[in-house]
Amino acid sequence: MTRFIFITGGVVSSLGKGLGSAALGALLQARGYSVRLCKLDPYLNVDPGTMSPFQHGEVYVTDDGAETDLDLGHYERFTGRPAVQTDNITTGRIYTNVLQKERRGDYLGATIQVIPHITDEIKDFIREKDGSADFVLCEIGGTVGDIESLPFLEAIRQFGNEMGRERALFVHVTLLPYIPAAGELKTKPTQHSVKELMSAGIRPRILLCRADRPIEQDELRKIALFCNIDEEKVIPALDVATIYEVPLSYHAEGLDEQVLDCFGLLDKAKKPDLKVWQDIVHRIKEPESTVKIAVVGKYTNLADSYKSLNEALVHGGIANNVKVDMQFIESTVFEKENTSSYLEGVNGILVPGGFGERGAEGKIEAARFARERKVPYFGICFGMQMAVIEAARNLLGYDRANSTEFGPCDNAVVGLMTEWQRGEVKEARHANDDMGGTMRLGAYPARLVAGSKVASIYGSKEISERHRHRYEVNINFKDGLEEKGLLFSGMSPDGTLPEIVEYKDHPWFIGVQFHPELKSKPFDPHPLFVSFIRAALEQSRLV
Ligand code: GLN
């Protein structure tokens, strides 16, 4: 029997609802239950694929090729269960589905309304998860009180009624802000937010209270009284040093116990096995040394823009018992200033995924610095493309080598596959391009060249990794570049698409067309990140 847990948020956004949901999932797993997490997003975009990473953070890509909310990354990192397309839905998608049905005449002449048609569509999305796990955790994006959340709240209210208390539970995450002048944490916003939720007909049975300092028992009692919730179910959720401590901290405060109690499962529940989380936290808190990694990108002001990447670097650190000191460098600085002053002291350089011309020349410079100075270099997607352009310019002498992403060019070492197959790279074709649904998305296999560095890192000849890109390295430059030492060490199985490049005579210089960071987990770090951080550690011992 599947039980459903709905997680809503109140007071403010960015409370860590996604992390909280992921941590609860991990705790239930640690007690031997199977879990599935999904997210309902109230915004109108059909999916986050078209949203700027500045605004919305990273777009998380699933194996089955969906562009989803970054919280799905947390879910996967905490539970190990690969996210799928049907784990995320938005208002835009719900309306698209309903309107398509309406056009097809599926509603047999009925007037289409938010209730019941939109709410039914939301409920169908939730109901189809029935049977897929012991617990389905559904996070509702946004904050209670937002106009756009209303249909979602109504849908989960109805669903909760249909399932009954034995099968549905509402958990509300709130904030207790600290007011310095009063010297105390305030409970009023929490009371208001629960009231708001109750006015939508939803009575939370568990409150997760985010705070930046310990909450007095009196305050917890007060919240319980005003919000009509059992005292032990008002759970403090304090800030912790690393996100991987969240499961441990929530367990210590009794979250998983109270959830099981709500479902009447506590008596028969197993004690959780949290050793894996304790070990991870220990390694993060007590590293043996530090490596400095320069991340040369464009969205350097927001940690969320490269969420999975940051985490994958941390995972590489965990595996090597080192702290990874990430230095985010805006790549445009290299277009005006010498790279050396920024990159001289770093132990590794990573150029992550990216789109558009701005900052590209700076990334090319960073790749050049890494190649010439033999500093470990990890190029991911755009970072691989820039490294290949650098090689074409400086090793093959094609001064004007570039990517057609930035416009027509003479030596299109990176371009659309259709372009370089037909030799039409000089044609301008940007004007009318539709940017939605034109990317190579999701998991694709690649074959690794025997004896290459990547073959030994992966310990296998065939891999599968997730992609999100339009452009490809042009295979017509393969032979020339290989003669100069840039080995095309991973190819699509049909041999047409370069997936990985590496320098033969460099301690660690690897470019990958896919996004390995999406599959890395703290308890199962991605081999490329483990190896990259190890190379950086070795480099740090040399300097
Ligand atoms: N802009 C590049 C492309 O579309 C790279 C994309 C990426 O880095 N994810 O191919």
**Can you identify the CATH superfamily of the largest domain?**
P-loop containing nucleotide triphosphate hydrolases
Q: What's the assembly state of these chains?
A: single chain
Bound molecules: glutamine
- Output the radius of gyration: 25 Å
Tell me the structural class. Answer: alpha/beta
**CATH architecture name of the largest domain:** 3-Layer(aba) Sandwich
CATH class of the largest domain: Alpha Beta
Produce a short descriptive summary.
This protein is α/β, with parallel strands linked by helices.
Account of the 3D structure:
Helices cover 37% and strands 22% of the residues. With 543 residues, the protein is of the alpha/beta class. The protein has 2 domains: 3-279, P-loop containing nucleotide triphosphate hydrolases (Rossmann fold, 3-Layer(aba) Sandwich), CATH 3.40.50.300; 287-425 and 440-542, Class I glutamine amidotransferase (GATase) domain (Rossmann fold, 3-Layer(aba) Sandwich). The strands form 5 sheets. It has a 9-stranded mixed sheet with strand order 13-12-14-15-23-22-21-18-19, with helices on both faces. Residues 353-355, 381-382, 405, 468-471 line the site of glutamine.
